[in-house]
């Protein structure tokens, strides 16, 4: 009977998590509208059409109002959540399982939002870190302790360790891979275009939103121009800098860049604001998003610093394997940003279920590995 209750609780929670996954990144309140609704026709979904998994099957995966297909991911999230709840219950029981249910719910929401939007909202990361601190204080065995303040202290240290560890990785990545260079075999036409309340950079067949580049105040797009045309005037050759709110052009003289011109975005028209012929463009980028940094802090608050190290290591291995496999299967055509949050979540799930045992097994095999490596070195 308890297992049935856990399974049903997981299904109901999964249904709620579907609403969080859809609404949170879109800025829609979880309280209004209170009922779930069809994103296509806006129909409010009655309770008998909102039963986890069952309603999707009875409706044949379609909205009863507009017949629009309902993504199969909705029942899959409900089944996934239910399965994870059951796994935590079987592995830990009381009093640990309810705390891990909360943690698992955060992992599910972070994973699917990151897949869809390449972000993990602060409500999940920072709110999750606070929830982890509270849970470990109320349930000290989460940190392997019996005293509440020691457990809370280790939780806070785990969160801090996770944050600063990945923050260091992000900063080192910015130093090493902070830009990527586009070299044009022949001069390409580049335009700066304002539309949909954003500014876009059109270069050949590529269109890039400037808002995606400016994660730091010092970030800017740089381009080597044969000529630049702006507000009906033509300049060049020279070097163009596109910052978050302004455009700077250094016109090249006989010996050096000797004449600087600057325009603020507010004085530029809404359509084609700038046209240039470029030979090289330098685009700023981050090695990793700061949402991942805060997400690892959330993970550390629930499973401590050892779990942080394991999650980061395991997530990196899994992510690298999947990334390389995808590149091979698509013959190198699967470009674009890769969400790291799902791999961190999977790494932390492995730690939660079997991490300490795997770590013990690894260190038990380490002397043998070192021995064989020594023999290999001597033979060489």
Would you write up a description of this structure?
- There is one protein chain.
- This protein is of the alpha+beta class and 380 residues long.
- It has three domains: 1-93, no CATH class; 95-175 and 288-372; 179-284, no CATH class.
- It has helices at residues 2-23, 54-58, 73-92, 96-117, 122-138, 148-177, 290-329, 341-379, and strands at residues 179-195, 198-203, 206-209, 221-230, 233-235, 238-242, 246-252, 257-264, 272-284.
- Helix 4 crosses helix 8.
- The longest helix has 40 residues, at 290-329.
- The model has no long low-confidence stretch (mean pLDDT 88).
Which helices and strands occur, and which strands form pairs?
Layout: H1 2-23, H2 54-58, H3 73-92, H4 96-117, H5 122-138, H6 148-177, E1 179-195, E2 198-203, E3 206-209, E4 221-230, E5 233-235, E6 238-242, E7 246-252, E8 257-264, E9 272-284, H7 290-329, H8 341-379
Antiparallel strand pairs: 1-2, 1-9, 2-3, 4-5, 4-6, 4-9, 6-7, 7-8
Helix pairs in contact: 1-3, 1-4, 3-4, 4-5, 4-8, 5-6, 5-7, 6-7, 7-8
